[in-house]
Design brief:
The chain has 15 helices and 21 strands. By secondary structure, the chain is an alpha/beta fold. Helix 1 links the parallel strand 1 and strand 2. The longest helix is centred in the last third of the chain and has 24 residues.
Length: about 475
Amino acid sequence: MPSLKNKYYLLSLGCSKNTVDSESIAQVLNQNGLRGVGDPDEAEVLIVNTCGFIDAAKEESIGALRELVDLKRRGQMVIAAGCLSQRYGANLVQEVPGLDGVIGTRRWMDIFDLVTRLRGRKKPEPMYHLPTEANVVGLDERGVLRASVQGASAYLKIADGCRRPCAFCAIPKIKGTAVSRPIESIVAEAVGLQEMGVQELLLIAQDTTDYGYDLGLKDGLAHLLDAIVEAAPDVPWIRIMYAYPGYVTPRLMDTMARHEQILPYLDMPLQHGHRETLKRMKRPAKIEWVYDTLDKLRTTIPQLAVRTTFIVGYPGETDEEFEGLMQFIRDLQFDRAGAFKYSYEIGTPSATLPGQVPDDVKQARWEALMELQQGISLAKNQAFVGQTLDVLVEGHGEAEDEDGQPTGETVSLGRSYRDAPEIDGYVFVDGELPPGAIVPVRITGATAYDLIATVDTEGPQVIRPGQVYGEGMITVDEVQ
């Protein structure tokens, strides 16, 4: 049997922010002489970076931990890391007897210290590393890159934690308050990612628009964007994720409009569109601000694509409030919108609210909202037919017909500036294109979620992310 010593297996669950933490954990272990393997049977250290945001994520994380514990052999240790560990602490061992270690989100950088302690323990009792103080690591501090490279794209974490009071969310309890990373650390990493050939930087945090508040910066995100653009001019696409209502400032709008690299795309989860529901959510409830801000954004950045997220079935949501949300969506015509059915979360203020909405009502409202948004998204997509978009190619495969049967033809899969990885749509392009390339394609068809295209550099209409052409459009030849 091969030696397990100094090998680790790491399973990452949850969102892109968790993926970045997993990559950083792996770097710490690598720096200390361990080597990652893809088979848990071959590893000494088995780690699950858990997600504990909603019930379904909790169950998935617990199931993964139990599976590893059940298969654990002599000489192996199972460690729970991440959000579920921070949220439930030592109680997690009651859910998963046999766990060896529990480390939270706020000091993931101490993972090797925990491994060392577990190696030296005299009794097979679990060990915990759950400090209450939140911390972040910059390139200048430990040499740990706070990014996750996925093909030609990279998620770059600019801050951790959150200071918002949202009544339905456990993130502040899990992550702690917002802690921004130093600008110089983030910029250095952006330059390093540029040297690796990354084509798209996705700036992520629990709230990117709160970046720099704890550093004493006003309009910190705009300052950071200016610095990244200057230092890494060869990264073609920079995408902003997770903006917070009320903090999309005129300075940020201007910064997005001025820099060609910054995609005309904004992910801003609004959660609801009725004032009373938002008040119970402890979210910004000034609906007029959203109308006004989106109008300013679309004037300043004419090609802007807006993604948002809503919660249906929040405690106390009446038929009138839900209809208010539906009218809000009709009025503002979001390019992309996702919806979640409210999930009861122990320990959050919303858990004690009266008026819990029955599951069948939540389901009906979710279906109605998604049907409405699909119609809006389809119309938005159809407006691009006949135009040309730059597409970042992610891969290619065999095309399928309407019945899902292979056609024998090759199709490439890509994303336009309107499509963030994993959450938005795709552009399907005829033929085999090189992954990682940004290619102009002509849009020939549209569905509610995706676009269909062919490679075409002769089209009369061109949309280039970040460029505003004023009256009319210009041709590809003029751009080139």
